[in-house]
Amino acid sequence: MPQQLALPFAFNPELGFDQFHPGVNAEPVRHLRQTAAGMGERLIFLWGDSGAGKTHLLNACCREAAHRNRTISYLPLDLLIAWDAGALEGLEHQDLVCLDDVDRIAGDPAWEAALFILFNRLRELNRDLIVTATAPPARLSISLPDLKTRLGWGLTLRLHALADEDKLVALELHARSLGLDLPPQVGRFLLAHYPRDLPALRCLLGQLDHATLAAKRRLTIPFIKAFLGETT
Predict the structure, then answer these.
(1) Where are the beta strands (DSSP E) in 69-134?
(2) Where in the chain is the domain with CATH 3.40.50.300?
(3) How much is the pLDDT for 10?
(4) In what side-by-side order are the strands of the sheet with 96-100?
(5) Which of 41, 69, 201, 212 is geometrically suited to a Cys-Cys bond with 155, CB 3.0 to 4.6 A?
(6) Which of the four pLDDT bands, split at 50, 70 and 90, describes residue 8?
(7) Where are the alpha helices (DSSP H) in 68-97?
(8) Under a CB-based contact definition with an 8 Å cutoff, are residues 136 and 156 in contact?
């Protein structure tokens, strides 16, 4: 087995399927859970807009696989692109490989070649691969034609953005995981006045959780305004 580079990346074990509100995305989530468990499609290509929840679901897949004692590698290509493409060597020996933001390596000959080799080796060994991107395989700016073709061989799933009511449910779910009480009117206020993508809103909730604990206050609209330095 080739020696693999030691990479400072690991999946977030706090991002599980139970912490994700699927809304209209129940079918993609079902397929992801099956593959993470080793009982689904060998290749899943998950695409959707930034902030739709792709990274959360990729981490959830890793968590599910780990619970089943499967070997996994999680690689955020948005960060890994600064490394040598040799970082992909040897990953075919993992039960599950999860590559986030695969569109980040599009147009890079070394990375495209390394991913092409990894894809073929994973397929030969019947290992599982899940990749995410902001566009489906046919619309990626991949220069290597064979790689572009292979990325479309598996199951391509689109992750749709949640409607506001589903976003509110997702925020309440995340707040509960923090031990934070999020009244519906406060959740609607956040959706109406702050960045609407869920990762940003979850990050804001984390900050508000720490702030309410420090101040020994409940989470209210006036508290949010005061915390963020607003006067109206």
Answers:
(1) 72-76, 96-100, 128-133
(2) 17-158
(3) 78
(4) 72-76, 96-100, 128-133, 43-47, 155-158
(5) 41
(6) low
(7) 77-80
(8) yes
- How far is residue 210's CA from residue 187's CA, in Å, rounded to a whole number? 17
Alpha-carbon gap, residue 86 to 91, rounded angstroms: 10
Task: Report d(CA 68, CA 61) in Å as an integer.
Answer: 11
> What is the structure's pLDDT at 4?
45
Q: How far apart are CA 132 and CA 150, in angstroms?
A: 14
Residue 145 has pLDDT above 90, yes or no: yes
Q: Does domain 164-227 have CATH number 1.10.8.60?
A: yes
Q: Would you say how long the chain is, in residues?
A: 232
Six-digit token string for 86: 């040799």
With contact defined as beta carbons under 8 Å apart, do 28 and 46 qualify?
Answer: yes
Chain position carrying tokens 């790689």:
147
Whole-number Cα distances in Å, 146 to 112, 119, 137, 142, 152: 10, 11, 12, 9, 10
How is domain 17-158 classified at the CATH fold level?
A: Rossmann fold (3.40.50)
Q: How does residue 183 score in pLDDT terms, banded at 50, 70 and 90?
A: very high
Residue pair 95/35 in contact (Cβ under 8 Å)? The answer is no
Residue with tokens 């899940």: 130
pLDDT (tens digit per residue) in 65-114: 999 999 999 999 998 888 889 999 999 999 999 999 999 999 999 999 99
